[in-house]
Amino acid sequence: QAVVDFERLNEHAAAFQGHDVGFCCLGTTRAKAGADGFVRVDRDYVAQAAELARAGGCKHFVLQSSRGANPRSAFLYLRVKGEVENLVRAVGFERCTILRPAVLLCKRQESRPAEWIAQQFLGLVALVFPTAYSVPVEAVARAMVASVLQPSEEKVEVLENAAIHKLGKA
After folding, report:
1. Exposure pattern of 35-67 as b/e (b: 16+ CB <10 Å)?
2. In the chain, at which end, N or C, are there fewer CB atoms within 10 A of the end residue's CB?
3. Euclidean distance between CA atoms 90 and 155, whole angstroms
4. Which CATH number is 60's domain given?
């Protein structure tokens, strides 16, 4: 494990060398970082890390994005997620897997009351429609690993929420 300063990521290029696969789940919230900070973390840091990984020999990059990611979205969150997907694709990995999970079901250390309420509601909805609106973070992690272990002919593979659930059970 290497600790890097994302404000000086180029100084840590060695940490990105010699890896066949890269996993990226980096992100923050607009509430925590402000709009500019959100863009810097969720787009700029991720894109720069992908570039360094590729330069360091990474062949397969696995990116956790978001359901609804769209570079033309009117919503900042979805627009930034769509923009970073395009930037990561443009890096030119031999293979790139993009996961677009819906609402992540997890326990957080920090307090997010609105998210907690949504998770409680979606947890109940998931009993009837398990792949519709949410996904446990453990399923996303298993799907990320499984995507690397399963061969694919596709250079870029985008996995939506239902596919994440399915692959997360593999």
Report:
1. eeebbbbbbbbbbebbbbbbeeebebbbbbbbb
2. N
3. 11
4. 3.40.50.720
Residue 53 in any domain: the answer is: yes
Report how far apart, in Å, the C-alpha atoms of 66 and of each of 15, 72, 153 are. Answer: 26, 14, 23
Q: DSSP 3-state helix, strand, coil percentages of the chain (rounded to 5)? A: 50, 15, 30
- Total of domains in the chain: 1
CB atoms within 10 A of CB 85: 24
Report if residue 8 sits inside a domain: no
Domain assignment of residue 103, yes or no: yes
Q: Are 154 and 133 in contact (CB under 8 A)?
A: no
Flag whether pLDDT at 155 surpasses 90.
Answer: yes
DSSP 66: -
pTM score: 0.89
pLDDT, one tens digit per residue, over 83-101 is 999 999 999 999 999 999 9
Nearest by Cα to 42 from 65, 23, 62: 65
Q: How far apart are CA 123 and CA 8, in angstroms?
A: 39
* Alpha carbons 66 and 17: distance in angstroms, whole number: 27
Catalytic residues: 77, 81
* 5 domain-assigned: no
Q: Which two tokens stand for residue 65?
A: 């994005």
